[in-house]
Structures are given as structure tokens and as C-alpha cells.
Amino acid sequence: MMRGAIASARCAAHAAREAAGLCKGCGHAYCRECLTELDSAVWCARCLAGRLDVREGARRPWARAAGQLGLGAAGMTLLFAIWNALLEAASSVPAQYLKAGGRGH
Ligand SMILES: [Zn+2]
Ligand SMILES: [Zn+2]
Predict the structure, then answer these.
(1) What is the DSSP-derived secondary structure letter of residue 100?
(2) Is 101 within the bounds of a domain?
(3) If you measure from the C-alpha of residue 30 to the centroid of ligand 2, how many angstroms do you get, rounded to a whole number?
(4) Which ligand gives the minimal distance to the CA of 19?
(5) Span 24-45, pLDDT tens digits
(6) How many angstroms is it from 49 CA to the middle of ligand 1?
(7) Count of H-run helices and E-run strands, the chain
């Protein structure tokens, strides 16, 4: 009747894979690829991220702020590049239009 819980369990993220262990955070079964060892326990990616977040946030609050700032700067750079491309595309059309019809005589 009783089968090994872990042996028969499947990874919560990969249904085809056998579970290698239980996440200490959420208690779900995951395969080896999904589990990461930390603090002599295994964690799924989600719980690991949350745990690292708590750790980093508690130790170095500025690191999180810098990370968010870096993400913002990258986003701004991307937006700026898109804006530039749009301006270039937009400005090339009216320039030709003005040359052809606007300022002739
Ligand atoms: Zn988990
Ligand atoms: Zn998996």
C-alpha cells in the first residue's frame, strides 16, 4: 500500500521527471534541476529567490535599490533608443514632404 513518497513523486515543474527531493520552503517535490542547495537544504527556484531576496535585502538594502535602479536605467535606455528610432522615422517623412510641396515658391 505505502509507496515511497519521494520515489513515486514527480517534479512539480516537470511532470515527466522524478522528484529528487522536497523543497524546504513550500514542501513540493521537485527534480534535481529545479532544486538548489542552500543552507544544507534544497529549495525550488521560487523559494530560493524569495530566500535570497530576504537575505540580500536584510544585509544590503542598497544592493536591491541599485538593482532596481539598474533595471530602470536599462529600461530608460531601451525607451530612448525606441524614441530615437521613432523620431528618425517620423522626421524623415515630413522633411521630404516639406521639400516637395511646402517651401517651393
Ligand atoms: Zn519551494
Ligand atoms: Zn523539475
Answers:
(1) I
(2) no
(3) 5
(4) 2
(5) 999 999 999 999 998 899 999 9
(6) 9
(7) 3, 4
Q: CA 4 to CA 20: how far, in whole Å?
A: 12
Q: Does 74 fall in a domain?
A: no
**Domain around 27:** 1-59
Half-sphere exposure in the Cβ direction for 105 (13 Å, CA):
0
Q: How far is the CA of 85 from the centre of ligand 1 (A)?
A: 43
* Ligand 1 centre distance from Cα of residue 57 (Å): 19
Distance 12 CA to ligand 1 centre (A): 10
Question: How far is Cα 31 from Cα 51, in angstroms, rounded to an integer?
Answer: 19
Tell me whether residue 42 is in a domain: yes
pLDDT one-digit tens code per residue, 52-77: 887 777 666 676 677 777 767 888 88
Instruction: For residue 44, tell me if it sits in a domain.
Output: yes
Residue 37 alpha carbon to ligand 2 centre in Å: 14
Number of domains forming the structure of the chain: 1
Q: Report if pTM > 0.70.
A: no
